[in-house]
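Late entry, written up from scratch paper. The run itself happened at the end of the previous shift, but nothing got recorded in the book at the time, so transcribing now.
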Amino acid sequence: MAETKLSEKEIEAKVIELAKSGMTNEKIGLELKKLGAKPSDYKKRIAQILKPEGIAAFPDRNNIRANLERLKKHIQVHKQDKTSGRSLAIKVSKLRKLEKATAQFYP
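Output as recorded:
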């Protein structure tokens, strides 16, 4: 693949397009890397590009929520599994802390 230098506006447009298609920030970064865009080529981070557009992806929060759902299903079947119950409490705490932290940046 021949590397062509993309302008900042082209990079921002591509990031917004990929985010609207449902990609997470990490996947967008990998896609930009495939296109030959390096992080040093643009000043903004992907989250900073998406914030003004109102498109905010929270992969950490989504992963914790998915893990919580799996744990809840597991505990319904295995009621005596105390280790998983403790793990569930820890995950709920992590989610609460993460939501509190992201609320500062994305009200």
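The two ends are 41 Å apart (CA to CA).
(Scratch paper discarded after transcription.)
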